[in-house]
Design brief:
alpha+beta, single chain, eight-stranded mixed β-sheet
Length: about 200
């Protein structure tokens, strides 16, 4: 499970050629522009509003600290998606990683989100995460379906958990993936490589 991913990776999608690469401090302005271009409701996927400059500055610091690893999907020089793996080695749950992902509205349904989620999932496996979680509002059905296809299962419903800029509250669904348990089951059936990408 310690396979290291190498980036950049170049993928062919229905949206065209996309580069998946690690986010660096030099990407702060491009990611801020991406965040500002997202529909407001999409920002509810994320615990913080990435269309705010101070949030991006803090994000870049967390990348430098090693608490966050972010992958960017870049098409024609423009950020069109972001997948992030968040972990806290000093918490009670150092074995748990949280995946946060969002893609531009204009490229949805064209394979970019799937590729980005698979790459972020593979990063988590390479980092030795035993359990993964992801959260989104309950109406974001395409995203829920995407993560369920990766083996995630609904674990919690948090009512009125996020408030949008108009003050309306939304329910959040949390999905989890017990990587260690799935890996142990695969090994028991003689399929040790089945979880790796």
């Amino acid at each position: 499970m310690s396979e290291q991913r190498s980036y950049p990776r170049h993928l062919k999608t229905d949206a065209g050629d996309v580069e998946i690469r690690l986010m660096s401090p030099a990407d702060e302005a491009a990611v801020l522009a991406f965040g500002k271009g997202l529909p407001t409701h999409d920002l509810l996927f994320l615990p913080r509003n990435i269309s705010e400059p101070k949030v991006l500055t803090a994000w870049v610091k967390e990348i430098g600290r090693g608490a966050i690893t972010s992958l960017l999907a870049v098409k024609d020089g423009k950020v069109v998606g972001c997948g992030t793996l968040v972990r806290d080695a000093h918490s009670w749950s150092p074995h748990v990683g949280e995946i946060r992902m969002v893609v531009s509205l204009d490229i949805r349904g064209k394979g970019v989100g799937r590729a980005l989620s698979q790459e972020t999932f593979a990063l988590a496996l390479g980092a030795g995460m035993e359990k993964l979680s992801v959260q989104m509002t309950v109406d974001q059905q395409a995203a829920i379906t995407l993560f369920e296809s990766l083996g995630f299962k609904a674990e919690a419903l948090l009512r009125d958990h996020v408030r949008d800029i108009e003050g309306k509250t939304h329910d959040i669904v949390m999905l989890g993936h017990n990587v260690a348990q799935v890996q142990a089951q695969m090994e028991a059936y003689g399929l040790p490589g089945a979880v790796q990408h």
